[in-house]
Amino acid sequence: MIRILLSTRLGERRWTQADLARKTGIRPSTINDLYHEIAERVNLEHLDLICEALGCELSELITREDNSDVRVKTRTGAPLHKRPK
Predict the structure, then answer these.
(1) E strands, 1-85, in order
(2) pTM
(3) What average pLDDT score do residues 1-16 get?
(4) What is the CATH number of domain 2-63?
(5) How far apart are CA 81 and CA 65, in angstroms?
(6) Per-residue H/E/C for the chain
(7) What is the C-alpha to C-alpha distance for residues 65 and 34, in angstroms, rounded to an integer?
């Protein structure tokens, strides 16, 4: 599972989503989707702007955690197998 740690990074700096939107020029709705980890796609330029504004590395903003419920799918969306727990 991919985790976006934007809420943590903003909290550490005591910034609001609106503060980040103003500093980066990224739409507030896009910031909100990242903040609540509901974004389905992420723009690389946005990630770069956010890292620059927050003075952090990408690895401090996005992490990957193991998820035993992830299914590997074929092109048609049919499950191939489930990872063992």
Answers:
(1) 2-4, 62-64, 71-73, 79-82
(2) 0.77
(3) 96
(4) 1.10.260.40
(5) 19
(6) CEEECHHHHHHHHCCCHHHHHHHHCCCHHHHHHHHCCCCCCCCHHHHHHHHHHHCCCHHHCEEECCCCCCEEECCCCCEEEECCC
(7) 17
Q: Are 4 and 61 in contact (CB under 8 A)?
A: yes
In the structure encoding, which two tokens stand for residue 61, read together?
């903003």
Are 83 and 70 in contact by the 8 Å Cβ rule? The answer is yes
In a 13 Å sphere around the CA of 52, the CA atoms on its Cβ side amount to 11
Instruction: Please tell me the predicted confidence (pLDDT) of residue 73.
Output: 63
* Separation CA 54–CA 8 (nearest Å): 11
